[in-house]
Amino acid sequence: MILKKFVVWEMANNDYLLMDNGEAVLIDATLTIPELDSVLKENNVTLKSILLTHAHFDHIMGVKELQDKYDIKVYLHEGDKKLLEDTNQFLEAVGMQPIEIPRVDVYLKDGDKLTVGEKEIEVIHLPGHTPGGVGYKVDNWLFSGDTIFMSSVGRTDLPGGDFNTLVKSIKDRIFTLDDNLIIYPGHGAQTSVGYEKKYNSFV
User: Fold this and answer.
1) Counting Cβ atoms within 10 Å, is residue 71 exposed (0-12), middle (13-18) or buried (19+)?
2) Which residue among 39, 112, 123, 139 is least enclosed by CB atoms within 10 Å?
3) pLDDT digits (tens, 9 = 90+) for 50-84
4) What is the average pLDDT score of the chain?
């Protein structure tokens, strides 16, 4: 499997493209990624879906354009349905321009299994940063969204956030995974389960 990381927009979001056996999935879609087409062509893969880690605006702003351009499905955990629907109310409240809310084709549940090529993707519900935050586990990789960062954790002061729930998700769902598992967060550098168990002072 091939992994391509795109660092996007002023908030330095990480959007990840997973490619295997002629297929690709994009994890989060912050904005238009100019080089996406060329990466797909270079690797001879077809984009089949967008997997959203959660519904905060900075992870979904590019979804609608990709839906219009490609024949793809969009996946989001069911717990973030209301957060998605309320996106423009939040943007208006903070003085930002509204966006066109993307269509969600499949609402996920914990334990669901997806695929890219011949690889299985496991959905791990990680509430706390948002009610429907998830991680996507593929082989020895976990794409954790904004649940956990290197030596830090996601904020919980936005609608739907809860610090105690976030800590429980990290302790019960992430720290129980193999210490060598690599964590690819929604912002910042990659880390590992073992490193965070040792050095993350928030948990």
Assistant:
1) exposed
2) 139
3) 999 999 999 999 999 999 999 899 999 999 999 99
4) 97
The encoded tokens of residue 71 equal 């024949």
Please tell me the pTM assigned to this model: 0.97
- For tokens 């996106």, the residue is 87
Look-up: residue for tokens 């904005």?
31
> Mind giving me the DSSP string for the chain?
-EEEEEEETTTTEEEEEEEETTEEEEE---S--TTHHHHHHHTT-EEEEEE-S---GGGTTTHHHHHHHS--EEEEEGGGHHHHHTHHHHHHHTT----PPPPPSEEE-TT-EEEETTEEEEEEE-TTSSTT-EEEEETTEEEEETSEETTEE----STT--HHHHHHHIIIIITTS-TTPEEEESBS--EEHHHHHHH-TT-
CB contact at 8 A, 27 and 51: yes
Domains along the chain?
A: 2-199 (3.60.15.10)
Cα 77 to Cα 120: distance, rounded to the nearest angstrom:
17
Strand partners, 77: 108
